[in-house]
């Protein structure tokens, strides 16, 4: 499914650490890597791609690490505007996903959390895998290499984008038989406010509506569980707590140390998109201690 991926590098220590965990990529089926280094430059035309020498010793070293891990690796070293060029290269090579580190200098520092990140996600027609690295007490860049297919956390708001993300989870399960935890965050605050704006609406009616909605949610989550079990998952569980979405997601990750990868859509629908699949996707990439796979609506 993810046989060919684009790995972004800024030749920093951060990207070195990311590439040293190449085995993580193999765990989700990666066989081929396009190693992309973008030297920032405003091109003459939007689609201009100026190739520069791939013989940079640092690039060659990173290529060797990936190849020694069993990944066939090709270097793409070009001038350009980072976000735009990353997506051009991804389309050019028809990769299965774009892999970006979440901390570093130059391109990587801006890509994951800052302006380039938003641009990449807005432009990407391919899934984006964001891997967070951090500094230890001695200021060294560290990343705990962990098999990404160990235990997936799938986030859903039942939108069409979440359904596309589920298709990816299902294929990962078919290939790896990994366990999956399904999470849907309930937020009745806006519903309650809307209903309470009508004085004639009784509290008992609001409670009845919420109870019916909860029952519907449980039915949909059970259907997803059945689908993933049929795909071969060794274990599937689901939860649908109430609360602020980002807090619930991060607490879930912290309370389940076996979790190794978050999969979610990068855009939802209605007010849920604002709470769950819109701004939440960027919040999760900022705070999640484990890799996050974002599936764009255009996939």
Structure description:
The chain is of the alpha/beta class and 299 residues long. It folds into 2 domains: 4-142, HUPs (Rossmann fold, 3-Layer(aba) Sandwich), CATH 3.40.50.620; 152-295, Rossmann fold, CATH 3.40.50.620. Helix content is 45%, strand content 20%. The chain has 11 helices and 13 strands. The strands form 2 sheets. Strands 3-4-2-1-5-6-13-12-9-10-11 form an 11-stranded mixed beta sheet, sandwiched between helices. α4 (82-92) packs parallel to α6. The longest helix has 29 residues, at 203-231. The model is unreliable at 104-114 and 268-277 (pLDDT under 50).
With strands numbered from the N-terminus, the spatial order across the biggest sheet is 3-4-2-1-5-6-13-12-9-10-11
Task: Indicate the overall shape.
Answer: elongated
Strand content: 15-25%
Total domains: 2
Overall pLDDT, averaged? 80
Distance between the termini: 13 Å
Number of helices in the DSSP assignment: 11
Give a nutshell description of this structure.
The chain has 299 residues and is α/β, with parallel strands linked by helices. Helices cover 45% and strands 20% of the residues. Helix 4 (82-92) runs parallel beside helix 6, helix 7 packs parallel to helix 9 and helix 10 (245-255) packs across helix 11.
């Amino acid at each position: 499914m993810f046989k060919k991926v684009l790995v972004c590098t800024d030749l920093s220590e951060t990207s070195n650490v990311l590439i040293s965990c190449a085995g993580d990529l193999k765990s989700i089926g990666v066989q081929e890597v396009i190693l992309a280094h973008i030297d920032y430059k405003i091109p003459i035309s939007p689609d201009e791609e100026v190739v520069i020498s791939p013989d940079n010793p640092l690039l060659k070293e990173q290529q060797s690490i990936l190849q020694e891990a069993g990944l066939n690796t090709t270097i793409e070293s070009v001038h350009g505007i980072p976000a735009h060029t990353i997506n051009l290269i991804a389309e050019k090579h028809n990769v299965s996903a774009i892999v970006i580190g979440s901390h570093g200098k130059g391109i990587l520092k801006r890509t994951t959390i800052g302006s380039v990140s938003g641009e990449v996600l807005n432009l990407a027609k391919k899934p984006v895998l964001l891997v967070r690295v951090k500094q230890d007490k001695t200021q060294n860049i560290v990343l705990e290499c962990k098999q990404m297919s160990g235990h997936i956390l799938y986030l859903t708001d039942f939108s069409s984008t979440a359904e596309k993300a589920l298709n990816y989870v299902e294929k990962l399960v078919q290939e790896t038989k990994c366990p999956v935890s399904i999470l849907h965050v309930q937020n009745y605050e806006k519903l309650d406010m809307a209903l309470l704006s009508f004085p004639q609406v009784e509290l008992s009616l609001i409670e009845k509506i919420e109870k019916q909605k909860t029952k519907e949610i449980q039915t949909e989550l059970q259907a997803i569980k059945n689908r993933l079990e049929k795909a071969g998952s060794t274990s599937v569980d689901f939860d649908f707590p109430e609360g602020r979405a980002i807090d619930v997601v991060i607490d879930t990750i912290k309370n389940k140390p076996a979790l190794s990868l978050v999969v979610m859509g990068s855009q939802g629908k209605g007010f849920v998109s604002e709470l769950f699949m819109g701004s939440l996707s960027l919040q999760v990439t900022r705070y999640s201690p484990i890799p996050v796979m974002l599936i764009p609506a255009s996939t």
